[in-house]
Write a structure and sequence with these properties.
7 strands, three-stranded antiparallel β-sheet, four-stranded mixed β-sheet, 182 residues, 5 helices, alpha+beta
Length: 182
């Protein structure tokens, strides 16, 4: 009778132990060729012990999701640069302003402050007026896209808030800007 119980216990314990032993492997185990069976990372993804790639698949975005991500990246850029003594929006900035305009049209309860800035060349009065023209040019562009005037406020700081304090051409170029502040 004791032998019968022992036999039944062994029938249950041995398969459970065998399955438990098969499910775990050590990273330092080596296969028949002598190389380690742990996973290695390459530029294509992670490869397991059988040469099977794991974790290398990027999520596939639908065209709508791709457009949404692209719009978010453009909206992260909130500075519009201008040429010297100019207040016209340049074509290379159109995509940034359109991304902000789409967001404002989709969210009519959101307000934006449009700041106009100028470099330090010129009189303070002239630079205040130039900064205002730059901010109004951005506001006019947004209004043409369907953004309500009540969503926008315009302010000019002229040369009072420079982004770059260097007195170089690249510093002046950074200071000739319009900024969208939410």
């Amino acid at each position: 009778m004791n032998l019968n119980k022992l036999f039944k216990a062994m029938l249950v314990v041995v398969p459970v132990m065998a399955l438990g032993a098969c499910s775990t492997t050590s990273e330092s185990e080596t296969d028949a060729s002598g190389s380690t069976s742990g996973s290695t990372t390459t530029t294509g993804g992670e490869y397991g012990s059988g040469g099977v790639e794991t974790g290398g698949v990027a999520p596939i975005l639908t065209p709508e999701e791709q457009q949404r991500v692209e719009q978010e990246e453009l909206r992260a850029q909130n500075i519009i640069y201008f040429d010297f003594d100019r207040s016209e929006v340049q074509s290379e900035n159109a995509a940034i302003i359109q991304a902000h305009g789409n967001y404002l049209v989709e969210h009519p309860n959101v307000r934006v402050l449009i700041e106009g800035h100028a470099d330090e060349r010129g009189t303070p009065e002239y630079n205040i007026a130039l900064g205002e023209r730059r901010a109004k040019a951005i506001a006019k562009y947004l209004q043409g896209m369907g953004v309500q005037p009540s969503q926008m406020s315009v302010v000019s700081y002229g040369e009072e808030k420079p982004l770059d304090f260097s007195r170089s051409e690249s510093g002046f170029a950074k200071n000739r800007r319009g900024v969208l502040v939410y």
